[in-house]
Amino acid sequence: MRSWRISTPNRTGQINTARATGLVMSIPQTDPGALAASILVTVGDTLPVSQCTIFAYEFDARPRTVSAADHRGGRFLRDVADCYTTHFYALDGNRAIIGVRILANVIRGFGLNVTGPFG
Known about the structure:
The chain has helices at about 15-25, 35-45, 75-90, 95-110, and strands at about 50-55, 65-70. The protein is of the alpha+beta class and about 120 residues long.
């Protein structure tokens, strides 16, 4: 796996109110990339992020691509995300961690106490 060191941007610690409002307004949009694109715009001055993909993990089903966007635009990132959910999710070692967290949330939903690293 390749990695790149990124420089730390100048951070003010605050997010522009107009951008945060745009983020919330993008939630009900019919455009599948609107939410991810809005997240990129909202954090753009704070974090050096160029791609955003949001997955929904529902019980034991494969994840679903909710939204995907990058600064270049187009469908490429969404196609990569859909390929992951269709072909590679079963090989992902993070599944065990996600499963434990989902189980902990279900247990909490019944009013029981959860302790440990995911509690």
